[in-house]
Amino acid sequence: MSLERQVRAKLASKRNPEQEKEAQEWIEGVLGAKFPPGELFEDVLKDGTVLCQLINKLKPGSVAKINTSGGQFKMMENITNFQAAIKAYGVPDIDVFQTVDLWEKKDIAQVVSTLFALGRETYRHPEWNGPYLGPKPAVECKRDFSEEVLKAGQTVIGLQAGSNKGATQAGQNLGAGRKILLGK
């Protein structure tokens, strides 16, 4: 098997049909329109128009102009505009797919991962009250301890400090001992 075929097989194995279906249902819920029947998930997203409409629904005006015609470079520009808009929306750069991942269908799993990152980010925007995708991110749970509690914690000897109420590993022999062979 050639290396290219191995790489494609590995990328295809990363795809999760349930996650793709969940992402598609979320997009359809946000946009209020169904994907065309019979078309593959990646084919609907490929030109970037649906993605641009999605971010414009989440944050109006994020993508000023959505290209609907004009060749492949204009369509790839849609994808690039979507990526810039979701980064501005708050999606971390590390979660954003590369344009070729979608355009050339190289890594659709990464595209779905980006959609889930965008879905998680919607939780952090109180102005959005539509459907959400993925688990709600944890919020900071800051704790303020008094000086008295902090000082009490300094007197406790942790189990990692070598004291475990007299229990030690002395006398345990598991397996063969280490043998160092010199001169061979």
Description:
This is Transgelin. One of its GO terms (molecular function) is actin filament binding. It holds the Pfam family Calponin. This protein is mainly α. The protein has a domain of 123 residues: Calponin-like domain (Actin-binding Protein, T-fimbrin, domain 1, Orthogonal Bundle), CATH 1.10.418.10. It is built from 8 helices and no strands. The protein starts with a helix and ends in a 30-residue tail after the last helix.
What's a quick, concise take on this entry?
By secondary structure, the chain is mostly helical. It contains eight helices and no strands.
Features:
single chain, 184 residues, mainly alpha, Actin-binding Protein, T-fimbrin, domain 1, 8 helices, 0% strand, flat, Calponin_repeat, Calponin-like, CH_dom_sf
* Average pLDDT: 83
Distance between the termini: 42 Å
The rough form would be described as flat
* Number of helical stretches of at least 4 residues: 8
Biggest sheet, open or closed, and with what strands and sense? none
Q: What class, by secondary structure content?
A: mainly alpha
List the secondary-structure elements in sequence, H or E.
HHHHHHHH
Please identify the top-level CATH class of the domain at 1-123.
Mainly Alpha
Family: Belongs to the calponin family.
GO molecular function, one term: actin filament binding
Region (Disordered): 1-20
Organism: Papilio xuthus
